[in-house]
Structures are given as C-alpha cells and as structure tokens.
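Structure ticket #2291
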Amino acid sequence: MHTKKRTPVAYLIIVYILCILLAALSIFPFWVMVVNATRSTTQIQQHAVSLVPSSYLMNNLRILLGKSFNPARGFMNSIIISVCATACSVYFSTLTAYGIVVYNWKLKRAFFTFIMAIMMIPGQVTMIGYYQMVYKIHMTNNLLMLILPAIQAPAMVFFMRQYMIPALSLEIVQSARIDGAKEFYIFNRIALPIMKPAIATQAIFSFVTNWNDLFRPMVLLTDQKNYTMPIMVSLLKGDIYKTEFGSIYLGLTLTVLPLFVVYFLLSKYIIAGVALGSVKG
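Resolution: structure written out below.
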C-alpha cells in the first residue's frame, strides 16, 4: 500500500499556520492591554478580557494626568535614563571586549575570569552598599546614579567578546596601526562598524532592561520630578478608595510604546547578532 508523500507546499502551509498562531499568541496580551486602556474600571471588572475597544480613553487619560505626579515628566526621565544607560553599556562593553581581544597582556585571562565571576553576583546584593555610597555623596535624587552604573555590564562584555573574536580581523587592526592610526580611531572607525549587529542586539536588551527597571529607581529616587514611568504606573495602584484599572492599563500602554519603537528600529539585527555572537563564539 503506497502512501502519498507530503509535498513541500504542504509543509510550508503548516509552517505558515504555526507562525500565524504564534504571532497571534504574542500579540494577544498587548492587544488586550491596549483595549483595556480604552475601557472603564467597571467594564474591566465585569469582563477582564475584551477584543473590542471602548470609549473611555479620554476619561482614563484625564484620570492619569490628574494624579499628583506628571506622566510626561516620568516619560522623559525614563527616556533619558534608558537612552544614556544603553549608550554607556554598549560603548564601554564593546571597548572592554576590544581590549580583551586585541591586546595581549599578562593578566588578560584573569581579568576576563573576574568579569565572568561578577556575572554570578545579583545586582540586588550590591544595592545596599551602592545606596549608602550615593547617600553619603548626596546624589540620591540624581539621574546620573542610574546611568553611570550601566558602564559595567559583564554579560554584555562577554557577548561582545564572543562576537568580536570571529568578526574582527587582527590583521586589519595591525594595518591601521602601520598606517599611523591611533587606537581610539581604530576602535571607533573600524571595530564599531563591524560590531553593528551585536551592538544593535544588545542595545535592544539593554534599553528594555533599563526602561522596565523599577527596583533601583524606587530605592534612589524620592523626588516626584525624577520619577520614571514604571514608578508612576506602580503608584496608580495606590488609591485608597478605588483603583482605576483603565488608567493603569493606559499607563502600561504608554510605557510599552517606546519598547516597540526601539525593537522595530533594530530588530533586523537580532538574528544576525545572536547567531554570529553566540554560535561562532
């Protein structure tokens, strides 16, 4: 008895169906969040999930803007912290990886081992000591204290090193030195462009991490003018008499929007960056 073999077209149809289902499952929570941002608290309490938008968007916006804090200011604070921290993480991690890969020195292996050991230490463990230091220098309400620590990112250093080993040819670096190019010129004009896929990939992860960070800003920031969006969204749940779920969902929607923008701008580099940075390394 002969059985029919499935044609490649049938396999493609199955693959497309699975991709559509996975895409729908991925989009569903975000769609529910956006829809709930247009619904009233009563509607959300009666039916938590709805796929049809309602007409309470402006009312939820008035409630959100009527709080004691300023959401627009929080949005700008989050943008400043996330963009600056991401730039610091990406640039200095790539620079550190460049120093590990390109230069030969006695403590090179020990230095890299030390960086890997730091990866094992959770950030919450060092937060008490960091807060005490920041408090002593009177900078507890300064956004710089949330930006400067991003310079040390051991996981990103490891990723950049793994990507740089196969991607950056040492012969090109030697040729540039023979031509009289300075070290920072070589790094900025030769190494960084080669590292663009890895930089874009890590920039997405770093931006998302810093944007969603609630723990460190809650510890270091006490002045409302310095609050970030995650802090403001968390404070929306603190009403004594009534929790406005519609305004909470609207705040969450506004918080997620920049993440979508960053992702769509840099997403084309994700596959190339992860594949070349981890597999080839």
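Closing remark: The domain at 67-279 is CATH 1.10.3720.10 (MetI-like fold).
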